[in-house]
Amino acid sequence: MTVFKRIPAMKRLLSLALAAVVTVACHAEDKPSTSKPAVDTKTDKVVKTDEEWRKLLTPEQYRVTRTAGTERPFGEAYEKFNAEGEGTYYCVACGAELFTSKEKFHSGCGWPSFYDSSKAKGVAERVDDSGGMHRIEVTCKRCDAHLGHVFEGEGFKTPTNRRFCINAAALKFVEAKDAKPELQSLEQGKKNAAAARKADEDKLK
Ligand SMILES: [Zn+2]
What we know:
Layout: H1 2-30, E1 39-40, E2 45-46, H2 50-56, H3 59-67, H4 76-83, E3 87-91, E4 97-100, E5 113-114, E6 123-128, E7 135-140, E8 146-152, E9 162-166, E10 171-175, H5 186-204
The chain binds zinc ion.
């Protein structure tokens, strides 16, 4: 009889142990060690958890750069982009140089357009077959932020006949007369994001 009595107790123990394992596993997935460096020195890639990106970026910047979102065309950020003069466009997520005003051109598509990336070669390209379309996605080489897509052979009178169709939310513009930003450290990024989030919230008020 004692054997039969023990079975439910053992079952309880087993399920408790299983629950503990599952909890630990889920936890590990959600929150990898916080001691992870912000920049992986081997690949020179910015490594951050999803949670950290959410803290660093405004909701719109996060949606575009980390979930491959697309901003509304002809929006406020695009108007601002059109009005910008000479300068450099950096990755909003990590501060890597991506484009300059030299490669900027007016395509009329409603998103920032460049015919090439800057000499810094900070832009990566990869095939994107999502949504039933064959496109070339462009990302930031340093942090894998989604930037937009590149289209070819559309007949624009530019040196490359390519159109980098970029979300303004993924770009940080710095005027030529201003000092270029330092590559974003975690601490600096937090401050920037807090300021940008506040600006977003003020706009909603
Ligand atoms: Zn980046």
